[in-house]
Amino acid sequence: MTEMHERLTAARKEAGYPTATAAAEALGIPEPTYLGHENGSRGFRKASAELYARRFGVSLEWLLTGRGPKSHQPAAPEEHNAALVGYVGAGAETHFYAQEEALDYVPAPVGSGEDTVAVEIRGESLGSFFDRWLVFYDDVRRPVTTDLLNKLCVVGLEDGRILIKKVQRSKTKGYFHLLSQTEPPILDVRVEWAAKVKHLMPR
Fold this sequence. Notes:
Elements: H1 4-14, H2 20-27, H3 31-39, H4 46-56, H5 60-65, E1 81-88, E2 94-96, E3 104-107, E4 117-121, E5 133-137, E6 152-157, E7 162-169, E8 176-179, E9 186-189, E10 191-202
Parallel strand pairs: 1-4
Antiparallel strand pairs: 1-2, 1-3, 4-5, 5-10, 6-7, 6-10, 7-8, 8-9
């Protein structure tokens, strides 16, 4: 067996997933993405390989190259994963990448759904304590709804910036103030969409 996608298929079956669809659902990965990885129609990156190796109980080296011990161990299909879709830098800007694949997959907190995604904080945008923490969110609102006011949210602005801020209503209709504890407020801006931060956890 010399092809990476063939090793992936073998690892999935030995881990107890009868079909590729079942594996995709258990891992929280879009079915077309996983099917492409397993049937060889599209390659997969190291981040995806690390997830598959961990969940299917095989060594990363064996999955990627076919060398070294296979090291099969029982998988943990009950764990749910969320796509890592970007990073929050020192200026509190989340940079989304225009890729078909997520940057990585990370263990999601209890209660997460299929739409839950994560961004990783890099730097001190929310304070030095939160460097390298993960921020999880879903339920994106377009436009902003009143239940998000005074809540910490991931927000998208007209100019393309994606920020993590507390949302407050402006006196100007259709505009908002965006606040944080570590940076000056951003006043009177239009918000294209917002989603309440559901969970923060260290990576």
